[in-house]
Every structure is written in C-alpha cells, then in structure tokens.
Specification:
With 378 residues, the chain is α/β, with parallel strands linked by helices. 39% of the residues lie in helices and 15% in strands. The protein is built from 13 helices and twelve strands. Strands 1, 2, 5, 6, 7, 8, 9, 10, 11 and 12 form a ten-stranded mixed beta sheet that branches. Strands 3-4 form a two-stranded antiparallel ribbon.
C-alpha cells in the first residue's frame, strides 16, 4: 500500500465515493470501502443510486469506526437462500431466485398480496408495486443516523427520478435535510417497489435515468479539485453472447451501465474546454478587452482538476442475469472479497501518480479487477 496515502489523496482535493445501483451486486462496494478505510482513506462525499444509495447512507450515517460494522450488519440481515448455499449453490440458483420472488428477502422487502391479484388492481400511487419495502425502512432507521448525516462532516447525495416529469433529482445533505424517504426513493425500482412521495412529488429509482450518478460530481457548484472513486457494478465491457441465457445477462449489463462511457467522454471534453478558456483568458492583455467583459467571459473557464478512478466490476464465475437478486451468503461473500482485493490492488498501483496533460481537467483511470487499463486517461 502506498505510504501516506491519506495525505497524498488529500493533496488532490476532496475524496468522493460514487456507488452505482445493482441490487445484490452492491456487496462489491463494501469490499471497496473496506480497502479504502484500511488504507486510511475516508470519503468527504458519498453519492449513490439504488443499492448504492443504501450503502452510501450506511457510510455517511455512521461514525468512521462504526461504518464497516453497519455495512456488515445490513448485508447480514438481507442474506437470503442460505438453504440453497454450499458447493452446489449454482445448481440451486433458479430455486433461490424463485424463493426471493415469492417470499421476498428478510429486512428488505415482502410481497404485496394485492398486487398479485392483477396488474389493473387499484393500489394507489404510493403502494403500486409488487412488494412492500417497510422492512427496509425499519432496517435503515435502525442502522443509519440521519441526524449525523445532516450535521456530520460527510456529504451524502442520493439520486431519484420524478415519476411525473421523468427528470433526475439529486437529494443532497448539503442543501436539504435527508431522511429515510430519500434513500427509499432512490431504490424504488418499478414495478417491484412502489414510488416514494417527497414534498408532494413521487420518485422512483434513479437508476431508471442514471444508474451511475457521476454527473452529480462533475456538475457540482462550485466545482472542486477531487479524487473520485466510481464503483461500477454492471460491466460496460463483455464478450459476444452465444445463447439467449447469455444475451439476457449481457443486455442487463449494458442497460444498467447507464451510458457511463458517454457521460465521461462528454465531461472530459467540457473540463478540457474550461481549462482552455481559463488559459486563453490569462493570455489576453487587459488593454485589449474591457475588464468587465473579460471577467464575464473568463467565468466560463475553470482550473479545477478531477482524477476519476473507475472501478469496473468484472463478471464473476457462474454469474448470470439473476445476479442482482443473489443475496445468498456465498454470493455476498464472493463479491465483498472481490471488491476488497481489486481495490487494494488498485491503491497499490496509485494510478493518479501518472503524468497528465495540464490542460486536462478530467483525468480518467480505469481499473478492471484492480488492473489499470487506462492509467493516463487517454
């Protein structure tokens, strides 16, 4: 592990942890956080969508010494299908999935009997879902200190989408007090879970619009220098599927990787242009342009620099399109261990140390299974 890593990263700016949505795949994020914590790195800002919002709230809503315990307890409570675990777990995967669909998952969600009476059954806007998430509400209330979130040093942002306008909305503890509703709204994936009402507006899972909420960092005002660890649970890279089974799995990966590559490409262009504007403004003699006009134009420039480390989760052995509902003890353990190992390897390689173009405001470092594949951000 690099020496004095905490001090080294602090010199780059604020530390931001961005957590993608992905159901049971979210166990990978716990391994990521554990590796960061053991290296002495705690986030200044945590951003999440869906299961990422839940993990983010557990981090921001607990003191540093209790965060890993809270995460561990949450994932212990939502374990499911232990009876199907063991050496032959892969053979029993369909039965485990069917059990979750029919009976729900403890401390997370339970079936809504009325919803199974027919799709046209009038349930009401805040109950129109196949499952109730009251167990999750109770679990989060028990494990997350929202008073600490609203007064504490760690900023929390969770993404949800307005049912009425289809617009993405980021609820930010810097700007408004957050409570359990905001986290539930970020994870209200239809039609499984019902929408959540906040200030007379209904919200669904932010992953419908943006499952990788990195734009919350890039569009922040004011922008700050930062080291951003963005944890992707759905791989944007994959092989050609050879069966319908593989097609379904790859389709899900593509759908929920959420145009992350396009977002990042756009942001890199924007940040470079901001640096260019800043540099050009410095080259203009004051005698050539009125000061007020030059000041106004130079405001479009920006000298901030962000190192973005994209941690891309690889496809683990025997995973298929039901992986996001695999809350088995074995599945959770494997993803947790993978997140820890991959992040530890990435931290050892410290990709942000690589030389970068001074005009780049957005420096990308991609890591797949801990292996740096784009260290220079080219």
């Amino acid at each position: 592990m690099p020496q004095n890593l905490k001090k080294e990263l602090a010199a780059l700016g604020q530390t931001v942890l961005v957590l993608q949505g992905g159901g049971a795949l979210g166990a990978y994020q716990i391994g990521v956080y554990q590796a960061l914590q053991e290296a002495g790195v705690e986030p200044d800002w945590v951003i999440g969508t869906s299961i990422g919002a839940i993990n983010a709230a557990l981090i921001a809503g607990n003191a540093p010494g209790q965060r890993l315990n809270a995460l561990r307890e949450f994932w212990r409570r939502v374990e499911h299908g232990k009876v199907f675990d063991g050496p032959l777990a892969n053979l029993f995967s369909p039965m485990r999935t069917m059990s979750a669909v029919m009976a729900g998952i403890p401390s997370f969600f339970t079936p809504n009997p009325l919803a199974f009476m027919g799709q046209r059954m009038p349930l009401g806007p805040e109950a129109a879902g196949y499952y109730s998430v009251e167990p999750l509400r109770n679990t989060l209330t028990d494990l997350v200190d929202f008073d600490l979130i609203n007064a504490g040093p760690v900023r929390l942002t969770v993404g949800a989408v307005s049912v009425r306008t289809s617009e993405m909305h980021y609820f930010d503890s810097r700007d408004t007090p957050l409570d359990v509703r905001h986290v539930l709204a970020s994870g209200a994936l239809p039609p499984a879970f019902p929408a959540v009402r906040i200030d007379d507006e209904l919200y669904w899972d932010g992953g419908i619009v943006s499952n990788t909420p990195v734009e919350a960092v890039f569009d922040d005002n004011p922008r700050q220098n930062a080291i951003v660890f963005a944890v992707h649970l759905w791989s944007p890279h994959g092989t050609e599927p050879k069966s319908i089974w593989e097609v379904t799995n790859r389709q899900k990966d593509i759908q929920y990787s959420s145009r992350a590559h396009a977002h990042i490409k756009r942001q890199r262009q924007l940040h470079k242009l901001r640096h260019i504007v800043q540099r050009l403004a410095q080259l203009v003699p004051e005698s050539e342009v009125p000061v007020e006009e030059l000041t106004k134009l130079s405001c479009y420039g920006c000298a901030t620099q962000m190192h973005v480390v994209r941690l891309l989760t690889p496809q683990l052995e025997h995973e298929d399109h039901t992986k996001d509902v695999d809350f088995s003890p074995r599945g959770i353990r494997k993803r947790w261990e993978a997140g820890y190992a991959h992040t530890s390897e990435m931290l050892n390689k410290a990709p942000w140390r690589a030389a970068a173009d001074p005009l780049e405001g957005f420096i990308l470092h991609e890591a797949i299974a801990g292996e740096i594949v784009d260290a220079a951000g080219t």
